[in-house]
TrEMBL record:
Full protein name: Zinc-type alcohol dehydrogenase-like protein
GO MF term list: oxidoreductase activity; zinc ion binding
InterPro entries: ADH-like_N, ADH_Zn_typ-1, ER, GroES-like_sf, Lipid_raft_assoc_Zn_ADH, NAD(P)-bd_dom_sf
Keywords: Metal-binding, Oxidoreductase, Zinc
Length: 339
């Protein structure tokens, strides 16, 4: 089958970074479904894994951890899906990605595609929706019922990106006062459209901007950008007994002592944890994606696709990687495959 993969870890502009390859169609494990992939979307995990580093692969490494397509085969223990079902999912970084004609994924981390969305619109959603959902409701412990969050606030750093675009919507539905960070007019406008009540600039100190809006502390902080850069500012404005969650690894040591007097907490969110370690509760990703699908079909959530490309071709993927690495993306970029 056709796929786009890599043998070396190179800059995206290098024509050898991502290549057209031919690999064998995957054989399903007991809990696997085999999906005929119709569209994939890009995420920072794709560019981070592809980024220049030592080492070569004997077999092509296939990226791509956001996909939508049609089930064409099921493993012996599959109970959630049948052939012909349209699905969407984010997959596992412990396995080959979905930048290929066919892809194997564990049924427990996939869900039925929203019927109101096309494959590209659906492919934009899984990884960011899982990350936003787990980060807010599982890690930060935010209640989903709006009446339980009266008077509470959340600061979402990097609000106009893929995860931020979903987190803004979920936070607004949960009844929180939603503060997003953005630094350009187009990202500010997008964040407001997605549900932000207040916008501040993440390049500047948080406290003066928040106090200008009559906000002195925030109950929750969801950091989606440059954890170490924003650490002191987050520790300054988080409420006593509040919580900070980040999805961005840091090359610097974080001074957790800044949170001690406030008895504030810090926790990581990595949406691949359940799939990577096959945790006992990994089916929770199936369930939350089913809920997201229902909300998308009901119109209470909106897809965050903003750009489309077409073709299962290495040149298309290299250009898309460069776009993502430019730091100018708003929402999600999706690549649709042609027959």
């Amino acid at each position: 089958m056709k796929a786009v993969g890599l043998y070396e870890y190179l800059p995206a502009e290098d024509e050898n970074s991502l290549q057209n390859v031919t690999v064998e169609r995957p054989t399903p494990k007991p809990h696997d479904i085999i999906v005929h992939v119709k569209a994939v979307s890009l995420n920072p995990v794709d560019t981070k894994i592809r980024a220049p580093k030592d080492g070569k692969e004997e077999e092509p490494k296939i990226l791509g951890w956001d996909a939508a397509g049609v089930v064409v085969e099921t493993g012996s223990d599959v109970t959630l899906f049948k052939e012909g079902d349209e699905v969407y999912y984010a997959g596992s970084v412990g396995r080959q990605g979905a930048n290929s004609e066919y892809h194997a994924v564990d049924e427990r981390i996939a869900a039925k595609k929203p019927s109101s969305l096309d494959f590209a619109e659906a492919a934009a959603m899984p990884l960011t929706a899982i990350t936003a959902w787990e980060g807010m409701f599982d890690r930060l412990g935010i209640a989903q019922a709006a009446e339980k969050n009266e008077g509470k606030s959340i600061l979402i750093i990097g609000a106009a990106g893929g995860v931020g675009s979903i987190a803004l919507q979920l936070a607004a539905q949960a009844g929180l006062h939603v503060i997003g960070t953005a630094s350009r007019k187009e990202t500010t406008d997008w964040a407001r459209e997605m549900g932000a009540d207040t916008i501040i600039n993440h390049h500047d100190d948080f406290r003066p901007q928040l106090e200008q809006e009559g906000i002195h502390e925030v109950d929750y902080i969801f950091c989606l950008n440059a954890t170490d850069t924003h650490w002191d500012k987050m520790a300054d404005v988080v409420k006593p007994q509040g919580m900070i969650c980040s999805i961005v690894e840091t090359g610097e040591k974080l001074d957790l002592g800044l949170l001690k007097q406030k008895s504030a907490g810090f926790i990581w969110e990595f949406m691949f944890t359940r799939a990577l370690f096959e945790t006992e509760d990994m089916i929770e990703q199936h369930r939350l994606l089913e809920e997201v699908s229902s909300r998308l079909d009901a119109g209470t959530l909106k897809t965050t696709i903003t750009e489309r490309r077409r073709g299962l071709d290495a040149a298309v993927f290299r250009e898309a990687h460069q776009k993502l690495e430019s730091g100018t993306m708003i929402g999600k970029l999706v690549i649709e495959f042609t027959e």
